[in-house]
Every structure is written in structure tokens, then in C-alpha cells.
Amino acid sequence: MGLSIYFFLFNLFLLDHGYTEKTLGLLTSAMAVGNLAGAIPAGKLAQRFGLRVVLLFCFLLAIAVFSGRAILLAFPLQLLFAFLAGIALSAWAVCLSPAVAQLTDERQRPFAFSLILSLGIGVGALGGLLGSRLPGWFASHHILVGSLQPEQLVLLLSCCIVGFGLWPAAKLKFGRASLPARVRPFLSPFLLRFLPAIAVWSLVTGSFSPFANVYFAHHMHMSLPQIGNAFSISQVSQVVAVLVAPVIFRRWGLISGIVFTQVAASLLLIVLSAIGHPLAATAAYVGFTAFQWMNEPGLYSLLMNMVPPEERGGASAANSLTMAASQTIAAACAGAAFARYGYPSALRGIALIAIFAAALFWSMRAHSKHEPTLELDDIPSDT
User: Which residues of the chain have pLDDT under 50?
Assistant: First the structure.
């Protein structure tokens, strides 16, 4: 809830203080670099101290960093805070998959990931509504704290909401076996095919999604409440999509279902590039985000199913590293492209990348069954 409010409002808040798509892209890239830098340390810390300790550290660091971002607006400080925010969030990304995998079997796993994702998205729908309306409510009721603006008050309030997550997180208990004693994930033949595909798909997810609220504000000239409505509707559709996803994956298979969602998302990006009416743009965006999130349970399940339990932590870290590296490039390039070429041309380019990602996943179908696992003990020491 807290971060949903925060991420909805933060870019729009910075736009009002002189930031542009280009500088916002650099900040998003800095966060992705932090995610990249934090992935392996987060895995090692989870291995040494357990998943619960790392998640508590993630909460505490996130509260401090996101509070600082709301108050100190100088660009160099924002770059530093964005990097630290990426480190904080990388702990969640690294720990989520092994934690869910530890508590489920192969048949339950797609639904478990769907449940986790849909819960987060559903709460996010309420977060979008609150983030779009609370600043106006504070302003109309003259609720001020010192020199802080209404948007800053909402951003700090969202950090307080994040703090409430410390209580249930402190009660979580996980076994130490959820992460491997040695992390050598790149020796898996499956990962050598999966990681390039996820790298290309991450170029798509890291290009448009961070700028969606800016797209509605600058390109579609929508008001803050209208943008909040669009985001909330899209998140409701994402909940439905994520809950329906296991049915699609059971009927078509994981890889075929993933490819279907990626192709559908690419087509809707093309639609977004061609329309100019706010209502039509909202409808297309709702569809795009639904298909984008629909394939998440499939991606996580495919990764966890195709590696042995003792290597899942390493595979999750490798997946997070790959996604972060791609999104670092994507955010910076997308921000510059939106500023220089406009949204229509840039969105068409992102759609072509999505088609390429779908092709890479489709090429994995021949290797998806009976994938041989490369045992670490069978590898010569000089490999």
C-alpha cells in the first residue's frame, strides 16, 4: 500500500519541480543499478542470516531512503537515493521466489505466485486512488506541516504505511535451505536460454511502465484524479489477469501462455502509440498492464520448476541481476527516446522488442520438457 501510493505520485511530484522524462529516466536507471548491485549481496545475506532478516532490512532501508527522496530534491541526491532504493528493493526480488517455492509444490506454485501478485496489485489499486486524491484533500483542508507541500506529506505518509509492514514481517519464519550454499546458476543450460529471454522482456517492462503516469500527464493531458482512476482500473484488471493466469498456463503450458501474453502486450503498445483520446488510452493501458502482469506467475513458475531446489536461490539472484541490468538500460534509453522522438514512435519501438522477447521464449519450447540438470558435484573444479 505504502509503495503503491509513493510510486504513483513520486514522478508527478518531481515533474512539478523541474524534472523531465530524461532526468526521470536517469533516476529509474539509478534505481535499477542499485537493484543490480544489491542482488548478490542480498542472496548472500539471506543465505547467512535467513530470509526474514533480509526482508526486515529491506523494510528499514526502504523507509529511510524513500523518506529522504521526498524531502531532498537536488538531482545528485536523488540519484544517490534512487540507487539505495534499488538496493532495498532487490532484497524483496531475491527472496520472494525462494520463499514461495519453499512453501509450495510444483502444482501449487503458479497459483501461489498468482495469489501473491494479485494481492499486491489489488492493494495497489487502492494506493493509486489515495495517491491521486490525498494531495488535493490535504490542500483543501489546509493540512500543512512546516514548509512541506501536500504531495510531500502524502509521500511521507506512505513511508509510514510501509513501516506497518515490519510487524508481520518480523513474524515470518523460513528455513535456511531456501538458498543454496554455493551460487553458480550460469552453469545450468536452462538458465543460459532463460536469462537472455528475460533480459529482452525486461527491456519492455522497464521502458514504458515507469513513465506511464508521465505519459498520461504530458501526452494525454489528463488530470491527477483521472490518472489515479486509470491506474486503479488497470490494477483491478491486473488482479483478474493474474488470478486467471494459472488456468491459461495449465491449458496451454507455461511457455505458450507466456508467449501469448507477451504478444498481446506488444499489440496494445502499438494501440497506445496510435490513439489520442484519454478514455481510449486508458482502456489500452488497462489491457497492456493486464497482459504484462498475467505472464509474471508463468515466468516465476517456469524458473522455479526448471532448477533443482538447492539452486533456486542462485537462479532467483541471477534472474534479478538480469532484469535489473536490462531495466537500467531500458529506463535511460526510454526516457531519452520519449523526450526526443515522442511517445508514439518510442512505444512502437518497445512493441517490436516485446515481439522479439516472445520469439525467444517460443524457441525454448523444444527444451522445456525433461530438461537435464547440471549437478554442481559433476563439474570439474577448473570449470
Answer: 177-185, 370-383
3-class DSSP state for residue 199? Answer: helix
Best CATH choice for the domain 2-171+185-366 from the list 1.10.10.10, 1.10.3210.10, 1.10.3380.30, 1.20.1250.20: 1.20.1250.20
Provide the sign of the torsion angle of the four alpha carbons 100, 307, 249, 193, taken in this order: positive
Classify the phi-psi angles of 101: left when phi > 0, otherwise alpha if psi is within -120 to 50, otherwise beta.
alpha
User: Among 14, 354, 371, which residue's Cα sits nearest to residue 210?
Assistant: 14
pLDDT value of position 75: 92
Q: CB under 8 Å to 285, separation ≥6 — which residues?
A: 212, 216, 230, 234, 268, 272
pLDDT, tens digit, 9 for 90 and up, residues 78-88: 999 999 999 98
How far is C-alpha 131 from the chain's CA centre? 19
How many of the other CB atoms lie within 10 Å of CB of 360?
18
Give first-to-last CA distance, the chain, whole Å.
46
For the chain, give every domain's residue range.
2-171+185-366
Judge residue 181's burial from the number of C-beta atoms within 10 Å of its C-beta, 0-12 exposed, 13-18 middle, 19 or more buried.
exposed
Instruction: Take residue 21 and report the three cell numbers written for it.
Output: 522524462
Give the SS3 label for residue 173. Answer: coil
Residue 382 is predicted with a pLDDT of 34
User: How many residues are listed for the chain in this entry?
Assistant: 383
Three-state DSSP class for residue 308? coil
Q: How far is CA 158 from CA 4, 57, 161, 244, in A?
A: 8, 18, 5, 30
Asked if residues 81 and 68 have their Cβ atoms less than 8 Å apart, the reply is yes
The torsion of the CA quartet 199, 107, 39, 41, rounded to 10 degrees, works out to -150
- Helix boundaries (H) for the chain: 2-15, 21-49, 51-71, 75-102, 109-140, 150-163, 166-170, 189-205, 212-214, 224-252, 254-274, 278-294, 296-305, 312-341, 343-362
pLDDT score recorded for residue 367: 61
Q: What is the dihedral of CA 95, 96, 97, 98, to 10 degrees?
A: 40
